[in-house]
Design a protein that fits this description.
The chain is of the alpha+beta class and about 325 residues long. Helices cover about 20% and strands about 30% of the residues.
């Protein structure tokens, strides 16, 4: 069946107390997977109105304003297409494979990311992938964020997929992450136990919540300390969206470089121009969140043996660590 062009409609009423903000900036925070450039094009194409009037991107939204937007959803393949994209496969057998995903790669096709994904690469690599997921996500048992690097397990058949998913559901999978965060810790080991829910102010973000959302438990251990940052080992009891990033930000130790949860703000008191210049250079080294899914362990569904896979840190995190240590490479 041919794909048809459809529209996704939004109607947003600006609440009382909302500070003035540019229309394009505000809509970028409200529309999932939107960028400011795309929002500006929608406004310029008269697909956005404020109080039933066409308006410029620089318009400052105010309490009581009614914003309406009609966003065309472009046709896209019902199934992902194979693409010849290199994969870093650290293990493969007849039932599953372990991929070391680079930063910047999306796990599967979705709005605004229909090509260049891990799934596109997997379809080129293998003719055999599980089909338990909805169309466009063959083989994908679990995901990590686009700008997080590290290990993912991919299933080649539905039975293997189901058994792996069961282990994730029971939280019996070993998942170890390494991350560089802002600040030093008084306690060198600890647990963060806070519910996580979708943010009420920005639908693309998540936040800790008292009674709402889902239970989330994160364990951390300080591996190394620097002047104003720390290298942590993270283990997950649960696996919520953005869990590590949200939890660490909630205790004022955001992941270094994380633009979404405060990791690109300088959060130490020094006002020395030389120090600020150094930190800006470090942020240029790490244009993403400094987070890597380093270790993955589980019971192999077919052999019943526990398997454990480990990966090296990516180059950008190594370069950041060496600069923090004063060992430029």
């Amino acid at each position: 069946m041919a794909n048809l062009i459809t529209e996704k409609k939004y109607r947003i009423v600006i609440p009382e107390g909302k500070k003035k903000e540019r229309l394009d900036t505000f809509l970028t925070s409200q529309i999932e997977n939107a960028t400011r450039t795309k929002v500006q094009k929608l406004i310029e194409a008269n697909l956005v109105t404020v109080n039933s009037r066409f308006i410029k991107p620089s318009y400052k939204v105010m309490p009581g304003d009614i914003i309406e937007a009609s966003i065309p959803v472009s046709p896209h393949p019902e199934e992902a297409e194979p693409e010849d994209i290199p994969l870093d496969i650290i293990y493969e057998d007849d039932f599953l494979l372990i991929v070391n995903k680079p930063p910047g790669m999306v796990a599967h096709p979705a709005y605004a990311n229909y090509t260049g994904t891990l799934v596109n690469a997997l379809l080129h690599h293998s003719q055999k992938l599980s089909q338990l997921n909805q169309a466009g996500r063959p083989g994908i048992v679990h995901r990590i964020d686009k700008d997080t690097s590290g290990l993912l397990v991919v299933a080649k058949d539905d039975w293997t997929h189901a058994k792996l998913a069961e282990q994730f559901s029971k939280h019996s999978i070993e998942r170890e992450y390494w991350t560089i965060v802002w600040g030093l810790f008084r306690e060198k080991t600890g647990e963060i136990n806070s519910n996580i829910a979708r943010s009420k102010s920005d639908r693309k973000k998540f936040s800790v919540s008292g009674n709402e959302g889902k239970t989330a438990i994160t364990y951390y251990k300080v591996l190394e300390e620097f002047e104003f940052a720390s290298l942590l080992k993270i283990n997950l009891k649960t696996g919520r969206t953005h869990q590590i990033r949200v939890h660490l930000s909630s205790i004022n130790h955001p992941v270094f470089g994380d633009a979404t949860y405060g990791g690109r703000q300088i959060v130490f008191s020094s006002s020395l121009p030389k120090m600020k210049s150094r930190v800006q250079n470090l942020l240029e080294i790490m244009p993403r969140q400094a987070l890597h899914a380093k270790t993955l362990g589980f019971v192999h569904p077919h052999t019943k043996k526990t398997v454990r896979f480990d990966s090296e840190l990516p180059f950008d995190m190594i370069e950041l660590l060496n600069n923090l240590r004063g060992k430029k490479i």
